[in-house]
Amino acid sequence: MFVSELINLLLASRYNLKMGIPDVVLYLIGGSIATRVETGLMMFPFVLILSKIFPVGIEATMWSFCFSVMAINVSIISPLLAVFINNNFIHCSVKNMDNYIYIKYLRVFGSLLPFLFMWLVPGLDEVDDVHKAHIEKATQKNENKEEDTFDNELTTKIN
Questions:
Q1: How far apart are the first and last CA of the chain?
Q2: Fewer CB under 10 Å: which end of the chain, C or N?
């Protein structure tokens, strides 16, 4: 969300008018277009990596859990953290918008924070190893089920 936050910072600082760019254009680009494009670019690798890591048979449960955590973050944790920071450090209100630009600076800085955690993202080799292990485990389960079914059929026929 870095690009959209930079565009919104430009809009809040009013430098766009000095460059001859109308507010409406920046609002549409920063608020609608850039946010959607960045969300898509962010989610695509996330979905691909997780789809290979999830164990076979419980993918739907894992997807439900991941998207629930993301929804809780977006709708509850982020707004509460923003209110806490504003009330304790920035003190921006409807009557006093003097420090609004500092909120925008924090949003730009905050959009870069996920890069600190890039080391947690598994490499391609690690993802492939996990995926192969899941496939082997699922194959072994299926083979065991087939053997059990064959044994049960034999026992039934003998009795």
A1: 68
A2: C
